[in-house]
Design goal:
The protein is α/β, with parallel strands linked by helices and 405 residues long. The protein has helices at 3-12, 14-31, 52-57, 59-69, 83-86, 104-120, 134-142, 177-188, 215-228, 255-268, 283-293, 307-315, 326-330, 347-350, 383-386, 390-403, and strands at 43-47, 72-78, 96-99, 125-128, 147-152, 167-170, 236-241, 272-276, 298-300, 319-323, 337-341, 356-359. The chain is built from 16 helices and twelve strands.
Length: 405
Amino acid sequence: MNVDSMRKIDRRVGVPLCFFMSILIGISTRIRFIKKKKPDLTRVLFIELSEMGSAIIVDPAMRKLQKTAGSALYFAIFEDNYKSLEILQTVPEENAFKMRSSGLFVLAIDVIRFMFWCRRHKINTIIDLELFSRFTALLCALSGARSRVGYASFHDEGLYRGNLINFPVRYNPHVHMSVNFMSLVNTTLGQHDNPYATTPVISSELKLVKAKISENEVSNVKNKIKELYSSWEKERIVLLNVNASDLLPQRRWLPDNFAVVARHLLTEFNDVVLVGTGAPKERDYVQNVVDMVGDDRFVNSAGIFKFAELVPLYSMSELMLTNDSGPAHFASVTDLKVFVIFGPETPALYLPLGNAEPFYLGLPCSPCVSAANHRKTSCTTRPCITGISTDWVKARLTEYLKNGK
C-alpha cells in the first residue's frame, strides 16, 4: 500500500471507527465497573509503525522506562522498518511484532494477529508514539491493555481519534521529538498528573548509547570497500546518501546538486573516496548520481552493504551528507559527523541526536508538514530544499574536511 492510500484510509475509515470504538469502550468500562488505575509497567508495548528514524529517537525514553520501572519492553513496527530496532537492541527480537503493510487483506490479518499477540504476551500498558494516527489508536484499543498512553490534541482543532487513549499527553509541536517521546514515558511513570507534560526533560536524558561494533565487522566493511574501489588504501571515506524514503519524497535534494558537491570534493581532496549509500531498490537512483560525476573515486554501494554493516561503515567514515531520512538517525549511534539537508521538515523536531548539523533555510512556509496535516504537502516547487545552494554545502564540507570541525 502506498502512503497516500494509507492516509486516506486512516481519515475516511479511521475517524468513524474511532468514534464507535470509543462508545463501545465507554459502555464496557461502565458495565464492568473498571476504574482508572496507575499503569502497570510490568510489560510495556511501544507502537511506531512507519518511521525508522523514530525507533532511534525514542531509545533514550525506552531505556529510562526500563531502568526506572524494570519494564519488559515490546515494540510494534512495520516489518519493512524492523531493522532500525536491531541497531541498539534495546528490544529483543522475540518482543517485536512485525506488521505487514503490503495490502489491506494482509494488514487486516495482522491486526487480528496483533490482538492475540498482545494477549499472549500479557501487555499491560501501551505507548503510542505515532502522531495522531487513527490506526494505531485503534490498535491500542484492540490490544486489551488497560493503560493506553498517547498524544491528544485537547484545545487544538482537528486530529480526532476518539477517546481511545486513557492517559493522554498534549503533543507539543515546538520541541524536539525526543522530548515529546520522553514526555510520554514520564506520564507513564506518573511523574505528573495532568495531560500537560510539566516534568522537565534534561539534555543528559536524551543522549543515545553508542552501538557496539566489533573489529570483525569493521574488517568486513573494509573488504567490501576494497571490492568497490580496488585502489583504496587509507583514503578518508565520505558518504553521500542521495535518496529519501517514499513517505515524503519532497525531502530529496536534487541529484544534480549531490553530483556538484561530489565533483568539488574529489577535486579539492586527493585523500577522499566517496561512497553512495542506499537500499537495493535505490541502486539505479544512486548510480545516476555516480554517473553524473564520472570518477573512479565515487562508487555506488547501494544494496552492497547489509543493514547490519551500515553502523560499522558509519563508524569508520569521515562524514556523511544526507537527505533528512533514516540513515541520518542510524549514524547517530556512532561519532560520525552527519550533515542533514532539511526542507519540508524542521531540525527543531527531527535533527538526529548524534553529531549532526543541519542545512536548513527556515523559510516562512517551513515546515509545511506536521502532525496537523499527517505530514502531507502539495508543494511541488520545493524552494525550501531546492534553495539550499551547492556553494553553501561545498563550503561547509570543505571546512570540515580541512579542519575537522
